[in-house]
């Protein structure tokens, strides 16, 4: 007998598993299909983010930063640490344990909320039927009143540097190195490339980042991007902009990369090469030809503002649809869709999705950049505050970077908060909360911030918007 559900979710990543749990909480009979296997051959929930993305990369970023501090920066605190060394396999093992705990946690949440897990590959057929192909090749078809497509994304391959997961790796392979490469190349100066490059640079690798674009971090505010370039270069990352990779050759466990830049043809040799040029949606085996769901030529599924596809009752969320490929965006889309299926009029504010790069210092922003607003002809007032003037940052010996608040010159409404510095992601989230409620810079300036905190830098930047900062000299108004 065919199993019937109110909701079937294909994919158990941060979009899919959240959608499934929320749907079940709303009283809907829910199933979630997942095929990803861990190294032991067991189904692992959590998608790219939990297994080979957000979480493991943060584990390595934190471990490598602690090593870097112990080796080079404990002396300033009066702490003597001689002969500090790194055990790479132990660091990778810790990362694996964190992943195991979290993916197991999702399984527990499925059980607690009554979500049925179907192990295997899900494919949408006509009439909201879903074919599930188990790992042993057997198939079953389940019926759903509603289907949520949440199959995620995978790294983009480039012909000039084919991944072998040995010498040339993608972001997944870069999380599994068992020793520190002497020379490491990274193709792509985006979020993933900079984060992974930072990990291995802190551990002693000589890192060169090769980026095809002429501009560094074009999505970030110009002032923040310039500060980031300066800081990361100072930390030892060699960032080559306007460099287009034309080919590569692996010989004797080394890879020679050919690229062209403003100076012509170039060649560099590395012990390992990470290809981090972006991600693409996993939709090739997701839809039967008669499913009725429309996609574009790049494999993204067409949806409206509420994530509904061209087929009534079929939705798509996360990395397979328009917008930033961010775990938190996928999760909130999952919640919105589950609520809409349950009859609620849920919406999502796509204008206030924070972006974060977890280098050290962190780089984060929410809302619009100064260059975007100028391009739109919006008059703005800008306030900045450097962490060099923050007592809490000084106490932590972490004074690099600044907070920037951008407000509408006519209404004083905050339109963007941009941070490079300690706890940037947390400070930007404070800005996002205020902006969700339509805060003005004056509102933020009138709030009481505890002292001494890093948050005071946001307070002071908001005050600086209108020339009222206390702990730095204000710009004179013309």
Query: How would you classify the quaternary structure?
Result: single chain
Q: Provide the low-confidence segments as ranges.
A: none
User: What is the average per-residue confidence, as pLDDT, rounded to a whole number?
Assistant: 97
When the domains are counted, the total is 3
Beta-strand content? 15-25%
- Class from helix and strand fractions: alpha/beta
Report how far apart the termini are. 77 Å
Total strand segments: 22
User: What Rg, in angstroms, do the CA atoms define?
Assistant: 24 Å
Helices, by number, come to 12
Biggest sheet layout: 7 strands, mixed
Helix content: 25-40%
CATH 2nd-level architecture of the largest domain: 3-Layer(bba) Sandwich
What is the CATH class designation of the largest domain?
Answer: Alpha Beta
CATH topology of the largest domain: FAD/NAD(P)-binding domain
CATH homologous superfamily of the largest domain?
FAD/NAD(P)-binding domain
Morphology: globular
